[in-house]
């Protein structure tokens, strides 16, 4: 007998299938893209993979610890970070669904979760940044917080504090949500000792938040982990505070930024804003005090409202600090993770149309929003600058004129319908406006992201340097270019925390002694002249790599010697002291032809039967014998008139393994242990009595 599948099992299966399909779609969407956001991606990548946690300027230690596992992926660390991003992003789906399900049916809750994940915000899965993990942490905390009531015990509020503390260890921005949660807690608290009980619960929650933040921060970073915002954000906050204390000119800037955020939200979420505005009328509020719908309204208002204000103040504080930081820039990524709250607010009214407004009241509210939308249409948002990373939803909705006007027209229709019939207006918003805006804005953002699948000179330069230079050389590399974002993109690929950037304006020539006297290697990007006093250079399309502090000296503790040795055979892997030979012959092919006459200085030691036996070094037809003891010794070999050759061969008389000699299980055929080697050009022919051959 066939078991009947229940509707719940069917819905669960569909949800799981949808998440798997979306995972595959997002993976192919971000695969192959070059890094986009600089210097943010460079900062997060360096702090999570390359630096001790105590050296991180950003206190997101939970994010840093999790993403440190991308080091196991080698040069594919960005691909692994994107897989983690997608996993965390999609893991938020159940929590968005559960929050929505408290206020509307399963089908509508599933729809809200789907629209939320299909929007342009999923573009954050392409970046080596904490946005995806923070998106998940916010919705976990939101789900938990909305389950609270006035009768919730004190231990529950401690648990809320723990969750907020963990969220602040993903991004410290989570702490800006504490005031919103404090006000929300006051709203839901009931009972005769309301104020006292609220104060006690808030005290416990705040203590738990900072106890978790500081204890885990100290575990990962020691005393450095006891900072609230870390050195990077503390510097910004200190600068902003100092500016505020000496001038009130930041207020008009903040209001200007706030205007941009208000217009953007009016365009994208006009109907939910109307629903929330209606709730805050006295009549509606008294009818629905402390119901699930009311709790959602209050929570959404406090969370989104506080974060919009924080974003506006931040924009005003940093305006003018760099060419990119202008007052027209809308930092919506500081709160766009909360946008599904708007959808839930609207959807909750379809499930239970509990709010009652008079036609006059609705008409007044709708007329106000209509005027705002008409202003948006007339101005076409030209006074503000939506960017791909800061405000992907708004950029996607405004980048194509036809789509921009069509969406505004549909927003107007939904508002007008809402004035006549709230349910009708909400349906138009949820099932016409939102799918269309989601599809169009996502398509525009995906197209813009796709431009980053093609590499430029900065990408190619960073990838080449990473593959060409050893880690020790990368640590003494300076990347020089005119575009700061491009320079940090190169450093992202170089993947060495000690490599340095140098932003050099177009037209200014690079001078080693003036611009980077401590560097060994220079990655010069753009059309610039290479200094004449370099030891070795490689010129490729769009960039050059050259060494300004190299020599012919070879340190065998390293595994490559760019500019000196082109290839080598017969050597084992480097060790802390040097490198053993592995086989009967070691061949060194140099990057440049050897001098006609030269001295070869070798510091080495012999192994086993080779101790005291004659090795033979050969260049061209000239062969020079030499002997070594069991401990490091220096030998100088003289070569005269070797001809036009670029290779030196060292023949091993008795290549044997420690296993053959019953000295262990090492099967390498050892003979000579190289420590250092250097070719020194002779200023004149070496006398035959000194020369080999």
Automatic annotation (TrEMBL):
Major location category of this protein: membrane
One of the record's GO molecular function terms: pentosyltransferase activity
Subcellular location: Cell membrane
Any one of the GO CC terms: plasma membrane
Entry's Gene Ontology BP terms: lipopolysaccharide biosynthetic process
E.C. code: 2.7.8.20
Residues covered by the DUF7024 domain: 551-680
Domain Glycosyltransferase RgtA/B/C/D-like: from-to ranges: 80-209
Keyword terms: Cell membrane, Glycosyltransferase, Membrane, Transferase, Transmembrane, Transmembrane helix
Transmembrane segments: 12-30, 83-100, 107-127, 162-186, 198-220, 261-280, 301-322, 334-351, 363-381
Membrane topology, record value: Multi-pass membrane protein
Root EC class: transferase
Name used for this protein in its record: Phosphoglycerol transferase I
Origin organism lineage: Bacteria, Pseudomonadati, Pseudomonadota, Betaproteobacteria, Burkholderiales
């Amino acid at each position: 007998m066939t078991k009947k599948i229940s509707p719940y099992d069917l819905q669960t299966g569909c949800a799981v299938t949808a998440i798997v399909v979306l995972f595959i779609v997002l993976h192919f969407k971000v695969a192959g893209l070059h890094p986009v956001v600089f210097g943010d991606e460079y900062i997060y990548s360096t702090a999570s993979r390359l630096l001790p946690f105590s050296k991180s300027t950003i206190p997101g230690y939970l994010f840093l610890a999790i993403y440190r596992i991308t080091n196991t992926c080698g040069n594919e660390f960005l691909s692994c970070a994107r897989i983690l991003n997608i996993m965390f992003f999609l893991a938020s789906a159940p929590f968005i669904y559960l929050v929505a399900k408290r206020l509307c049916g399963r089908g509508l809750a599933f729809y809200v979760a789907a629209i939320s994940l299909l929007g342009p915000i999923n573009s954050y899965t392409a970046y080596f940044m904490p946005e995806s993990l923070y998106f998940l942490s916010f919705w976990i905390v939101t789900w938990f917080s909305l389950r609270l009531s006035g009768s919730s015990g004190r231990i529950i509020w401690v648990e809320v504090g723990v969750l907020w503390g963990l969220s602040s260890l993903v991004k410290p921005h989570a702490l800006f949500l504490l005031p919103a949660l404090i006000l929300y807690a006051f709203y839901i608290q009931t009972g005769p000792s309301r104020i006292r009980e609220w104060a006690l619960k808030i005290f416990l929650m705040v203590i738990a938040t900072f106890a978790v933040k500081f204890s885990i921060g100290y575990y990962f970073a020691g005393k450095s982990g006891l900072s609230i915002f870390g050195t990077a954000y503390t510097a910004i906050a200190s600068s902003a505070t100092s500016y505020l204390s000496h001038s009130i000119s930041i207020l008009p800037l903040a209001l200007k930024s706030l205007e941009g955020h208000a217009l953007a939200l009016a365009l994208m979420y006009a109907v939910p804003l109307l629903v929330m505005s209606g709730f805050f009328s006295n009549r509606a509020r008294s009818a629905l005090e402390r119901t699930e719908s009311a709790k959602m309204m209050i929570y959404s208002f406090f969370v989104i409202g506080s974060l919009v204000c924080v974003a506006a103040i931040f924009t005003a504080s940093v305006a003018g600090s760099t060419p990119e930081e202008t007052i027209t820039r809308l930092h919506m990524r500081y709160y766009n993770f909360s946008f599904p709250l708007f959808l839930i607010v609207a959807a909750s009214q379809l499930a239970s149309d509990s709010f009652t407004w008079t036609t006059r009241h609705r008409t007044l509210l709708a007329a106000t929003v209509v005027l705002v939308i008409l202003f948006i249409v007339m101005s076409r948002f030209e006074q503000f600058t939506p960017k791909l990373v800061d405000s992907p939803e708004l950029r996607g909705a405004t980048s194509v004129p036809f789509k921009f006007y069509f969406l505004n027209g549909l927003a107007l229709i939904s508002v007008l319908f809402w004035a006549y019939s709230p349910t009708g207006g909400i349906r138009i918003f949820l099932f016409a406006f939102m799918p269309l805006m989601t599809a169009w804005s996502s398509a525009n953002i995906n197209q813009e992201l796709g431009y980053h699948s093609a590499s430029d000179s900065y990408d190619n330069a960073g990838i080449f340097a990473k593959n060409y230079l050893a880690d020790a050389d990368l640590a003494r590399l300076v990347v020089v270019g005119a575009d700061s974002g491009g320079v940090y993109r190169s450093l992202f690929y170089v993947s060495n925390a000690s490599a340095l950037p140098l932003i050099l304006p177009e037209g200014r020539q690079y001078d080693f002694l003036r611009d980077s006297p401590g560097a060994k290697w220079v990655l010069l990007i753009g059309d610039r002249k290479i200094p004449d006093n370099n030891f070795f250079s490689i010129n490729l399309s769009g960039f050059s790599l050259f060494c300004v502090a190299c020599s012919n000296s070879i340190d065998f503790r390293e595994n490559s010697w760019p500019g000196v040795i082109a290839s080598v055979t017969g050597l084992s892997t480097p060790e802390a002291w040097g490198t053993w030979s592995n086989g009967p012959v070691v061949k060194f092919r140099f990057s440049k032809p050897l001098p006609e006459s030269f001295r070869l200085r070798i510091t080495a030691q012999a192994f086993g039967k080779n101790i005291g036996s004659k090795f033979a070094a050969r260049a061209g037809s000239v062969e020079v014998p030499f002997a070594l003891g069991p401990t490091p010794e220096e030998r100088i070999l003289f070569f005269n008139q070797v001809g036009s050759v670029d290779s030196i061969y060292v023949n091993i008389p008795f290549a044997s393994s420690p296993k053959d000699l019953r000295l262990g299980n090492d099967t390498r055929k050892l003979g000579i242990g190289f420590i250092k080697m250097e070719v020194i050009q002779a200023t004149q022919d070496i006398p035959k009595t000194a020369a080999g051959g």
